[in-house]
């Protein structure tokens, strides 16, 4: 027989000053009984959505689904499953037992919307919570901030500011570490570091996440000094031990500040603190040593890693490439157990920047053969190599196969690389067409077009582009004026060149460099103003260099000025005695004045000094393959056919009455 439960002892009545005990929520009374129910136990271990639907039906039939705790577990399953079952979760939330959904259920539903990449629906639910004064906790505000960040495009932080106002009204700001961290992260991520710092300073309690978010926010925005100060304050006054994420941000700041000694101190701290097993921290150390060019230290960290990911290998390849050890970089690249598009891009960029365009193009073609899809950085790296080699067909193929097809998004930097490639390969129409189609342009875009027209002697287009540039509000830089002065030099526009040279200094406060002075010397020299050009070369605030004196010497050859030519040649010989071009130009100047003794003397001087004239070199692309030729070259496989065709051309020229100028 069932026995009656023992009677509860009488409870003392509360005194007049004793507050009544808080009421215990009715939905939680039988929570322990519900948790131990077999159906709830099966729900906790459920691994598939069809099985979940069966359990949901059984819980509904048994009446357990009407309880607050089972309903919240059903909702959590839908929200956290992969993919999230948003519609089913919303249906469960709509049938939440009286008096409605609690804070946990509402926050879980917002999380489901975020996981399903529906931030606007999460924000709509948050607004409903605010309007109807539904239950909310710190998690509600955290998910609302994440939704605001995901829903906004660009640097705007209006949505997050609204959530911040609600957090202030509800009394979470300054009290909840969770909400404070979320606000600091939101503002730091949107570049509002002053607001992030204000929220951070107002927090009554901070944890390691609070400090790390602030350090990382400063480091990401290039404010390395501020990042390091916060890090030091964290360790000294904050009483917090940095974790691996904090140290990664600190290493980034150290790399920006260029303080290798601090980097080595952090390295010792990591080694002595037993944090060396962290892959991300080891990668950050390798990257920091890369910035300082410390190849051996980076290799020491790399070799000490028990586990390496593809980023570790790629960063180490980058270290060797930056230090100029391309053979070591290539060997390490070949030894990589797994490569991704970033790895390939890194190696292609290394060859391209080291003036080895053939290797860059070869590696790009190998990447395509191995079915690795190029990324934006890959194309930005290989296009300059195409420009150097004159591989216009390959450049066009890249544009058609990846940009026209939509496989790669045409960013501003990539568009600039295409314009530069088209221009250097001689296809100005394609360069101009792409420039006109670009929705966004920066000063590099304009410079690319200015230099393209300048190199091809199209001075009118250059001057027109410059006037257009001034109308856009983009401020021209030193490269812009280099293109302008070069165009003026090509076309002999002396007055325009003088005006732009003056405007560069007076209007834009850009101090001319040696290259700008060389353009002015070339402009004046070609126009016959050799004395003025010589005065410019002598009056430069820096050494004229090979470009300046070389331009003057060439102008002397054109106008047959022996005296100034000898002055320029003396300067050039002191800079580079082995440059055969100096002797050749002076020989031509002497020959134009019939000074054959000086010509003979120069030739003997070249022979005595072991100076040899560098052979002329030209290249042509045929069916996607570049062919390179030197003067008097007989090494090409079709040399006999080429010389036969050349001889035939000479015969036809002679029949037409052509007499070469010798």
Automatic annotation (TrEMBL):
PROSITE patterns hit by this protein: PPR
Native source species: Aegilops tauschii subsp. strangulata
Mapped PPR repeat ranges: 207-241, 309-339, 340-374, 442-476
GO function terms (MF aspect): RNA binding
Source lineage: Eukaryota, Viridiplantae, Streptophyta, Embryophyta, Tracheophyta
Location of the region described as Disordered in the Swiss-Prot/TrEMBL record: 1-29
GO biological process: mRNA modification
Family matches, as Pfam families: E_motif (PF20431), PPR (PF01535), PPR_2 (PF13041)
SUPFAM superfamilies: TPR-like
Name by which UniProt lists this protein: DYW domain-containing protein
Keywords: Repeat, Transit peptide
Repeat in keyword set: yes
GO terms under cellular component: cytoplasm
InterPro entries tied to this protein: E_motif (IPR046848), PPR_At4g14850-like_plant (IPR046960), PPR_rpt (IPR002885), TPR-like_helical_dom_sf (IPR011990)
Presence of keyword Transit peptide: yes
Bias-annotated ranges (Pro residues): 1-25
């Amino acid at each position: 027989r069932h026995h009656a439960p023992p009677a509860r002892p009488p409870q003392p009545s509360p005194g007049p000053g004793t507050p009544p005990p808080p009421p215990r929520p009715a939905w939680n009374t039988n929570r322990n009984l519900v948790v131990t129910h077999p159906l709830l136990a099966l729900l906790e271990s459920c691994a598939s959505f069809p099985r979940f639907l069966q359990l949901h039906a059984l819980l509904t039939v048994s009446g357990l689904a009407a309880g607050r705790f089972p309903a919240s577990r059903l909702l959590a399953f839908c929200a956290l499953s992969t993919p999230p079952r948003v519609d089913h979760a919303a249906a469960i939330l709509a049938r939440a037992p009286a008096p409605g959904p609690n804070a946990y259920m509402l926050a879980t539903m917002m999380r489901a919307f975020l996981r399903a990449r529906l931030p606007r629906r999460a924000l709509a639910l948050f607004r409903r919570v605010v309007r109807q004064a539904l239950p909310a906790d710190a998690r509600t505000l955290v998910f609302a901030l994440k939704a605001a960040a995901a829903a906004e495009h660009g640097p705007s932080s209006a949505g997050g500011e609204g959530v911040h106002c609600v957090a202030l009204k509800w009394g979470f700001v300054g009290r909840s570490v969770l909400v404070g961290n979320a606000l600091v992260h939101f503002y730091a991520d949107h570049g509002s570091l002053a607001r992030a710092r204000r929220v951070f300073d107002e927090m009554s309690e901070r944890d390691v996440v609070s400090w790390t978010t602030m350090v990382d926010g400063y480091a990401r925005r290039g404010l390395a000094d501020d990042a390091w100060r916060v890090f030091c304050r964290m360790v000294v006054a904050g009483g917090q031990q940095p974790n691996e994420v904090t140290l990664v941000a600190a290493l980034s700041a150290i790399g920006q500040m260029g303080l290798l000694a601090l980097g080595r101190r952090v390295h010792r701290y990591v080694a002595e603190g037993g944090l060396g097993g962290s892959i991300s921290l080891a990668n950050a150390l390798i990257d920091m040593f890369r910035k300082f060019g410390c190849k051996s230290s980076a290799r020491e960290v790399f070799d000490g890693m028990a586990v390496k990911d593809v980023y570790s290998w790629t960063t180490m390849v980058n270290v060797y490439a930056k230090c100029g050890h391309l053979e070591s970089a290539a060997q390490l690249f070949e030894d990589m157990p797994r490569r991704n598009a970033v790895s390939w891009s890194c190696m292609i960029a290394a060859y391209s920047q080291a003036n080895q365009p053939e290797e860059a193009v070869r590696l790009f073609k190998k990447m395509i053969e191995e079915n690795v899809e190029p990324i934006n950085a890959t194309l930005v790296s290989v296009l300059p190599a195409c420009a150097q080699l004159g591989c216009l067909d390959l450049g066009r193929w890249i544009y058609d196969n990846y940009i026209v097809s939509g496989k790669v998004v045409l960013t501003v930097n990539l568009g600039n690389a295409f314009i530069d490639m088209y221009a250097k390969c001689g296809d100005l129409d394609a360069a101009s067409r792409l420039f006109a189609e670009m929705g966004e342009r920066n000063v590099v875009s304009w410079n690319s077009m200015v230099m393209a027209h300048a190199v091809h002697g199209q001075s009118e287009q250059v001057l027109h582009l410059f006037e257009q540039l001034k109308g856009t509000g983009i401020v021209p830089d030193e490269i812009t004026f280099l293109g302008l002065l070069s165009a003026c030099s090509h076309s002999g526009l002396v007055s325009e060149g003088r005006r732009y040279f003056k405007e560069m200094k007076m209007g834009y406060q850009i101090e001319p460099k040696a290259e700008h002075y060389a353009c002015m010397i070339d402009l004046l020299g070609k126009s016959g103003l050799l004395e003025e050009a010589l005065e410019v070369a002598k009056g430069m605030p820096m050494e004229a260099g090979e470009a300046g004196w070389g331009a003057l010497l060439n102008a002397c050859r054109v106008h047959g000025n022996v005296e100034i030519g000898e002055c320029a040649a003396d300067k050039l010989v002191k800079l580079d005695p082995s440059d055969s071009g100096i002797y050749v130009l002076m020989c031509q100047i002497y020959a134009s004045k019939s000074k054959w003794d000086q010509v003979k003397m120069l030739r003997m001087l070249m022979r005595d000094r072991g100076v040899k004239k560098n052979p002329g070199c030209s290249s042509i692309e045929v069916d996607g393959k570049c062919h390179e030729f030197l003067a008097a070259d007989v090494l090409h496989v079709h040399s006999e056919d080429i010389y036969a065709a050349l001889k035939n051309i000479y015969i036809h020229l002679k029949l037409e009455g052509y007499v070469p100028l010798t």
